Amino acid sequence: MINPVSRAAIALRERRRAPDMAQIMSAVPVPVVLLDVDNRFRFVNHAAEQFLGISASGLSQLRLRDLIPEDNPLFLLVDQVRRSGATVSDHDMSVDSPRLNKRGMTVQGASLPEEPGSVVLVLQDASAARALDRQLAFRGAARSVTGMAAVLAHEVKNPLSGIRGAAQLLETSVDTQDRELAVLIRDEADRIRALVDRMEIFGEKPITRTAVNIHRVLEHVRKLAQSGFAPHVHFQEVYDPSLPPVWGNRDQLIQVFLNLVKNAAEAVSTTEQSNPEITLMTAFQHGMRLAVPGTKTRLDVPLLVTIRDNGPGIAEDIRPHLFEPFVSTKASGSGLGLALVAKIVGDHGGLIEVNSRPGRTDFRLHLPVLNEEEADQGA
User: Fold this and answer.
1) Which of 91, 93, 138, 332 has its CA 20 to 30 A from that of 165?
2) What is the DSSP string of 299-334?
């Protein structure tokens, strides 16, 4: 029979073996925050440090009001938890302050009976899930464009060639005034044909993939931009040199980033500031998997590329529709550029999302990396 002292010693050893609660919470991949009765940060796990962009030691010196304005609905949620003692949830919450900019958060708050007045907050960023839902809609819209392009190619291109040929014949047999009208007809026929050709690139064609160095792609795009449409823009590069290759199509990725950088250059050119800037960033981010369209394959998409500009931002009413075909913020735009970007990224099994406010717009691309199995198949 075990005596009480031995039993206590065994219990103490078991307790020491058991992981500390702080260790458990630090390992949880969802941001968790503990506020004391004065809304000071008593505890934050590693995910919360990344989510808030501030270290635990830095947060320990702050109160909630130092991060977000006191009229934010998050304060109402915290007060409701303290008054009721129940778990309270709020969805689609936004935080916009000099230190923090998060949109579409889901926040859950609960009281901690052992520490009266303390509140545990669980923060979840639902923006990626919503971006994925929107991209599924974009893919459907892109398929509609594909079908429309096929019809236009058959029903429009052939008679359009006849119209253009007739206009060319008229140019040689009419007077100067009528010749101008014939040239106008020919030019408009060429413009319509070019539009149909652009729509045909939405066709469902398999991608030829290889190992692609994303930094060489971005460097190529930067050189094209600085020697062409963006000589006045300052480019900043913040790269993670340890990134593995992207599993993708180099030419299509150049097309994607060239389009995004061109849009960013046009955005910063519309402002009156003297320091137009575009930042190209890469990073490795664990934990996101997406399905490859048309297959049962699921890819890890941990490679994150961000194109950031300090332009005026994108209007809030157009952001949810930004990647849809025929939606454009430019008066002369066709609205196919970003739709094509979304389609190419989706075909790669990746995800693109946008976060914008005045003075800062981020296009964030999550892309698959090359793994050993794919490398063996490509060899």
Assistant:
1) 332
2) EE--EEEEEEE-SS---TTTGGGTTSTT--SSTT--
